[in-house]
Amino acid sequence: MNHLAIISITLLATATGAYADADHAKASHPQATQSEHAVHSSADGTKHASFDILAAHIHRNDNSITFHMTTNGIAGAQKPTPKGTLAGAPVYSYVWPTSLDPATVGFEGKSGILALAATSHPDFDDTPLYDEDGDGDKSNDGGDWHSHWVVLTPTEACGVGALGVRDIPEGETPAMPATWPGLPIFIDSPGFTPHFDGPEVHINVELPDGSVIEGAAYDGVTAALKVNANIHAPLLCVGDVFDVASGDLSLPGRVR
């Protein structure tokens, strides 16, 4: 069984619930239908509205790429409750898994599923180059929504069939992006700012050559991750999937 099949089974097992009528959801949030190429999802009253995905899409304008998601509530309204320690710290995220090779943004090639994420985690800061809250301290704003490129892989140590952000084993030096924050995992802190507007969240990404993303497959996911209680490999696991735009992580979207 390939990695994508394993991931699909994992997310389907976690992201369950009865779906409401899709037309009602689109009428409530007209922006959900702004792209015919978007991955659409029906509203689900059993899920927290700010993580209930109605649509996810990625579109390109030359070298500027916009990752966009529409929710059934106020996107970004809910953040994790601080735990007070790094061990077991929660992470909330809006994620766009893609078919792009991780080498596209500077990671070791063919190392997993490349995804862009908007995340919030008040117990730690992993964007050492940036001061998101503008207070002059670059190390205290992990709770503010910020962006990451991550490489996801099936990680049995996170649970049977579970996902994790790929670890960097001690002694190995795989290729990392220039803005890698130094953590022993496949994560990049590129400094792209997530923008929230009612039900919408989007991130504008600049690539040296935007044509590399043309035709790429994608999906949308909302999820909670958790730092390992032992702060050891695996460092960061996907602990709970709130919603998957396609329902099965089949990456049906295509960048046009």
Descriptive account of the structure:
With 256 residues, the protein is mainly β. The protein has one domain. It has helices spanning 3-14, 22-28, and strands spanning 39-40, 53-61, 64-71, 90-97, 113-120, 146-154, 163-165, 187-188, 194-197, 200-206, 217-218, 221-227, 236-244, 253-254. The strands form three sheets. Strands 4, 5, 6, 7, 8, 12 and 13 form a seven-stranded antiparallel beta sheet that branches. It has a five-stranded antiparallel beta sheet with strand order 1-2-3-10-9, with helices on one face. The chain has a two-stranded antiparallel ribbon with strand order 11-14. Strand 2 (53-61) and strand 3 (64-71) form a beta hairpin. The two termini are 30 Å apart. The model is unreliable at 1-33 (pLDDT under 50).
Looking at this protein, list some descriptive labels.
seven-stranded antiparallel beta sheet; five-stranded antiparallel beta sheet; 7% helix; globular; disordered N terminus
Oligomer description: single chain
Q: How does the helix and strand content classify structurally?
A: mainly beta
Strand-residue proportion: 25-35%
Instruction: Label the overall shape.
Output: globular
Gap between N and C termini: 30 Å
Number of continuous helical runs: 2
State mean pLDDT (0 to 100 scale). 88
Helix content: under 10%
Low-confidence stretches are 1-33
Q: Indicate the radius of gyration in whole angstroms.
A: 17 Å
Largest sheet: 7 strands, antiparallel
